[in-house]
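Annual report, structural modelling task.

Input specification for the zinc ion complex:
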Amino acid sequence: MRLSLRTPAFPILVLAAAARVAAAGLEAGVAKTTITPDVTAAKVYMAGFGNNRVASGVHDDLWVRCLALSAGTDKLVMCGVDLIGFFYDDVLKVRAQVKAQRPDVTQLIVASAHDHEGPDTMGLWGPSPLQSGIDPAYMDTLDDRIATTAIQALQSLKPARVVLGRDDHPLLALLQDDSRPPYVKDPHLFVMQFTATDGATIATLVNWSDHPETLDSKNTLITADYPHWLREYVEQHGGGTALFFNGSIGGLLSTLGDQVSLLDPDTGEVARDATWRKAELFGDTVGELAMRAVDRKGGAGVEAPVDSIVIRQKVIFAPIENDGFRVGGALGVFRGRKGLWTNGKPDPTVEQRDMPQFGGKVPYATGHDLQTEVDYIQFRGGGKLLAEIATVPGEIYPELVNGGITRYPGADYPDAPFEPTVRAGMRSPFPMIFGLANDELGYIIPKCEWDSKPPWLQNRKSHWYGEVNSAGPEVAGAVTQSLRALMEGE
Ligand SMILES: [Zn+2]
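The model returned the following structure:
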């Protein structure tokens, strides 16, 4: 496979010396701002299902919520946004804006919850497949609000303690429908709860994997979906500000589907699909498990003496093999984002190609690669590794994270080597995966399970869903190998 690496814009930061820096203990700060689009000012195309789903109102606000952390010599800001995806181009703009005011920031991460009930920020769900659903004015506002919120979080840094928790309750797997073999899920729930020296909660970060699409495709009211109720539950029961970061949701792990049922305690019946009640029960259920995970009285949460944060970053180039993305990009579906690269340089070349699947002659972007990024973060204390975060620029199939890649008859590359398992390189009890972090490249699929041509996997009569929303079969290798290299300290 072809994988080219270059020196990142920021150097790879290995801060082994941080633990020796005196009196710079853990500090935490949090801020939140609404990013709800004004559905009365302009047409808001909703993301995640079919084209031309126009928002008719707002059920609950969308948010950017930023957690700033400082330890040793480093400052990390992690922002979660209630969006379908947020491209690397915008992340770089936000970083530049924050760095201009706060040059002391080591790293800023923006991760999308992958909300299917919010505005189209990727361009794929406009009036028709080749007409963008992105509102550029909204995107500018978004970049500003994320940057401002990150700075506010940094301004509110204060001495803090952190309790780490996790839960592997069987219910968590039952809340994830997996619609494609191999049926590997990622049920693990991780929680970081930060408290001030007076004991008041500053923030609670919840990391779990599931598509926020409980309201399904017919809903036209803007909502954050289940993360809205999850955060409300956590704030009501634990105080402070709650943040949600989605995990490994490819494959695809969904809140919709046969395997997902929740009993409504008010009616004694299973909550109906695509109802507000189901989304509420969903958020409450995960919220309850999150609070249990950091309940020190119950013996679950562990206090972590964090005294340094190690941040490693790698900019990577992954070959693109999706003609829809190439044509869409050339037609302006991404509104100038997602430009292609060749040999480590921007490559804006577009040529006319006859493509019957797009109705004849269309512009086609010919560049070789997409540029994106992976990060690996360690929380350390007293020289020990306490917790980790790996950021993934898309929807990664859980078998790439937890193991279980499988060869099937019908695959396009049946002999492709297995990619390295991401979590096999993580050595703490809290190996968190932040999906859709700093980018959204769509599905990240093991190459030997790639299937864009008949015969189909397991000799099924019709194609499996996945490849149409993936940049290509080489992305998984580029992402997993780069993450494992960062974990090894390379
Ligand atoms: Zn998705």
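The chain has a mean pLDDT of 94.
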